[in-house]
Amino acid sequence: MTAAGSLRANARWRWWELAVFAALPLCWWLLPGQSLLLNEIAITALFAVSLDLILGYAGVVSLGHAAFFGLGAYTAAIVANGGMPEPLAGLGIAIGASALLGLASSALILRGSDLTRLMVTLGVASLLYELANKLDWLTGGADGMQVAMAPLAGRFEFDLAGRTALAYSLAVLGIALFVSRRIVHSPFGLSLQALRDNRLRAASIGLSVPLRLVAIYTFSAALAGAAGALLAQTAGIASLDMFGFERSADILLVLVIGGTGYLYGGIFGAIAFKLLHDLVSAWTPEYWNFWVGLFLVVLVMVGRERLVRPWTWWRRAA
Fold first, then answer.
1. For the chain, which end, N or C, has fewer CB atoms within 10 Å of the first or last residue's CB respectively?
2. Is the domain of 279 the same as that of 290?
3. Are 62 and 117 in contact (CB under 8 A)?
4. How confident is the model at residue 169 (pLDDT cuts 50, 70, 90)?
5. CA-angle at 154, arms to 149 and 157, nearest 5°
6. Residue 38, φ and ψ in degrees, nearest 5
7. pTM over 0.85
8. What is the count of structural domains for the chain?
9. 152 phi and psi angles, rounded to 5 deg
10. Which structural domain, as residue segments, surrounds residue 313?
11. Cα 224 to Cα 128: distance, rounded to the nearest angstrom
12. How big is the CA angle at 76 (ends 86 and 120), to the nearest 5 degrees?
């Protein structure tokens, strides 16, 4: 098989991928009573997909991805309160602002070890956190910003049940997932996996490693900004915790649960993480972190494949 044929075969749609895309509108239709929870899952999934693009495909580890998430949230809030409450306009501006920040900060990930990148990305998020805290005349500081949104597309009001918010978030998630899939199954996406495996070897065969890292980091930042904008617009508030370390850590946990390097891990991980959070916190609100931590320990010790396929536990290792 030729290289072009192999690329086309790899990009062919699988039945389960079509099922994932079909499930997006179906969950809005079949689960009207869970719209608020599903909206949180959709936003978390979009944020996880954005991180997976740099972690799972380019091998860039980040502990400060919340910088783009928070910037998108505050940008959407400032735009709405500044006289442009149309959600789609605020979303577009938030995506642009986060992409510019990703482009500006991408130089920080081109050199150094993984540990250096961890600390540098964490530092960027910390700087924005403090900046948002100090500029309380613009951001509301520790009190956050209330966001008043106009009807979506001038027609659909954001209702308390979250039906409009869920449809909005699912639509953005579906578009982002489709575009991301096209990218990772393109020659550019395959080159990202090559430099993830061995940057020196990728550079030795003529691939421009810096340009590819800058491009995917900028696109990843744009998607993270979109997730932040969606949360601010649908929840009606932008707060400092959107820049917090816990936000970045939680999204890494989502990818640990769902898996990295195949996009849909962010979606499955977001579903598992949010449902676990919702169920355990309702059962024991004081100690839900303990049970989440225990689940992660079991997941790592047993393995993701064996955990979801328990009938393989007693098979003899090959």
1. C
2. no
3. yes
4. very high
5. 55
6. -65, -35
7. yes
8. 2
9. -65, 125
10. 285-318
11. 15
12. 160
